[in-house]
Amino acid sequence: MNAPQSILTAHSCAPDARQAVREFHAAVVQPEMALVLFFCSSAYDREALAEEMTRLFTGVQVMGFGSAMIAALVLGLFNTLLRPILVLLTLPVTLLTLGLFLFVINALLFYFAASLLDGFRVNGFVAALIGSVLYSLCGLVIDAAMERMFRRR
Questions:
Q1: Which residues have C-beta within 8 Å of that of residue 83, sequence separation ≥ 6?
Q2: Rounded CA gap, 63 and 39, in Å?
Q3: Is pTM beyond 0.85 here?
Q4: Please, what sign has the CA dihedral across residues 11, 14, 19, 23?
């Protein structure tokens, strides 16, 4: 019995965006995939790519670097402007759940940002919850790195 490979690569020369995604999916699909990076030509129809990726790969999809930057900006604005208000309004529930309800707030903001943006899709609440936790962890790592880099001596 072979153990699953940790990194798989695949390619497609299909002229149709949907067919290219199907071929890619067939080559890399595994029962417990954690991350899929899909690079393709800009000649493909982005909407067709997004629809087929959403159908075949569950979770969070970000279509392009520009979409990722805009999503990060929108999430940053939501966390700065909306999150404090939501935390204040849900304070009794947050205290009752010992702070675990903050994960729900983060997931809802993540899901709401995805619903407003093209090129950023979230398939369900669980994916939004996992995506928001990963987004928060990335923020913590970046904050720690920046603090070390610019520490006053």
A1: 105, 106, 109
A2: 9
A3: no
A4: negative
Q: How far is CA 143 from CA 25, 77, 146, 153, in A?
A: 35, 17, 5, 18
Which DSSP string do the residues of 42-107 spell out, in sequence order? TTS-HHHHHHHHHHHS-SEEE-SHHHHHHHHHHHHHHHHHTHHHHHHHTHHHHHHTTTTHHHHHHH
What are φ and ψ of residue 27, in 5° steps? -80, -30
Tokens at 123, concatenated: 């398939």
Tell me the pLDDT tens digit for each residue of 65-116: 888 889 889 998 999 999 999 999 999 999 999 989 999 999 999 999 999 9
Copy the structure tokens of residue 131.
């995506």
Residue 74 tokens read as 């929108």
Place of tokens 């899909």: 38
- For residues 54 and 43, give the distance between their C-alpha atoms in angstroms, rounded to a whole number: 19
